[in-house]
Write a structure and sequence with these properties.
190 residues, alpha+beta, 9-stranded antiparallel β-sheet, single chain
């Protein structure tokens, strides 16, 4: 992936955090698979219950990448949100937008820590929260990842063995039925 594409995905995620925090929540974990440098789409985590369901659901984000035969993925999540939802200890800066760029040959963790600042009151009378981005640490090749994210990275490059004429199409339908929010690019929409 070229730097320009990664930077565009990073800015997209930072914008999502600005919008999400202003509404009182961080965005759910999202996977962005790419095939030969072309973005397949953005797939957000389905609604989950804490614990095992959250662990499984995050790892299952990989299904769309595997079905598309992705060459690389970017997966984004918030440190404390995933730790709380998965009932794991928070590891690393918090609050922090984490983005892992992965291929079959390895991964690099990019972290974007922030502090939460309060803006003026919204029309409803409640304060709005905005992230104030802090200096980013140096990207970490092959960094340790939280278990569900590591599973998603590993499984994203494991071919799906589906006896179906359209493994990608059926995976999209099944994930949508499970509650994942999929926004496919035009090249991958059907």
């Amino acid at each position: 992936m070229d730097t320009r594409t990664f930077d565009a995905l990073t800015e997209s995620m930072k914008s999502a955090y600005v919008a999400g925090l202003s509404e009182g929540a961080v965005p759910r974990p999202v996977i962005m698979p790419l095939v030969r440098g072309e973005l397949v789409g953005l797939i957000w985590l389905r609604p989950v219950t804490s614990g095992k369901d959250a662990l499984t659901a995050i790892a299952s984000l990989s299904n769309i990448a595997a079905a598309a035969n992705a060459d690389e993925i970017v997966l984004a999540w918030e440190t404390q949100d995933v730790a709380t939802t998965c009932e794991l200890p928070a590891d690393g800066p918090s609050p922090c937008l984490n983005m892992v760029h992965a291929t079959k040959d390895g991964h690099t963790l990019h972290q974007f820590p922030y502090t939460e600042g309060t803006l003026a009151d919204t029309p409803e009378g409640s304060p709005s929260i905005e992230p104030h981005w802090q200096p980013a640490p140096t990207p970490q090749p092959d960094a340790e990842l939280v278990p569900p994210v590591q599973a998603a990275v590993d499984y994203a490059f494991t071919p799906l063995e589906l006896d179906h004429p359209s493994p990608f199409g059926v995976t999209v339908v099944l994930m949508e039925e499970d509650g994942y929010n999929l926004r496919l690019t035009e090249a991958f929409a059907f």
